[in-house]
């Protein structure tokens, strides 16, 4: 399993609902956690590994504490809190680019867990932020869309480099290579 990098088109598509949870899905979820940990991430959405389904994994406690592992299948936000907080975000699929994103500090989410059970959960602070960031991936939205104009301008050079590297990979290896950029 490999990460897919910006500007791969799968990152900009709305993922399809996952209608069956079987052994193959559970195996992929395990691989997603391992990849997320190897890249020092706290969340990873299925489209980021080339799998266009509405599923993401996260562990806001960090890779040392596996008790924080969560799997969100067909997630949605039921309600958002009124208080917004602006904090820095980054993305495993967009190496080296970071920026401040304003998001609700709390939310009520609904999702299926890996056993297929429908869950409702109130989330706050980092849990809320990671949920929203990963849900954006399932909707074909990158955190870049939430940056202010100044931060978008600052990110532009790095994004152009990633676009150039992606075009070179596509030309040399065929479409959808998704391989790791050389500069990260």
Number of domains: 1
In percent, how helical is the residue content? 25-40%
Structural class: alpha+beta
CATH superfamily heading: Peptide deformylase
Per DSSP, what share of the residues sits in E-state strands of 2 or more residues?
A: 25-35%
| Uncertain residue ranges | 180-184
Order of helices and strands: HEEEEEEEHH
CATH class: Alpha Beta
Largest beta sheet: strand ordering: 1-2-3-6-7
- The backbone outline, from C-alpha atoms, is globular
Do you know the CATH architecture?
Answer: Alpha-Beta Complex
Gap from first CA to last CA: 18 Å
The count of strands amounts to 7
Largest sheet: 5 strands, antiparallel
Q: Provide the residue-averaged pLDDT.
A: 91
CATH topology: Peptide Deformylase
Computed over alpha carbons, the radius of gyration is: 16 Å
Number of helices: 3
What can you see in these coordinates?
The chain has 184 residues and is of the alpha+beta class. It has one domain: Peptide deformylase (Peptide Deformylase), CATH 3.90.45. Helices cover 30% and strands 28% of the residues. It is built from three helices and seven strands. It has a five-stranded antiparallel β-sheet with strand order 1-2-3-6-7. The chain has a two-stranded antiparallel sheet with strand order 4-5. A hairpin with a 2-residue loop joins strand 4 and strand 5 (94-104). It is globular and about 45 Å long. Mean pLDDT is 91; it is low at 180-184.
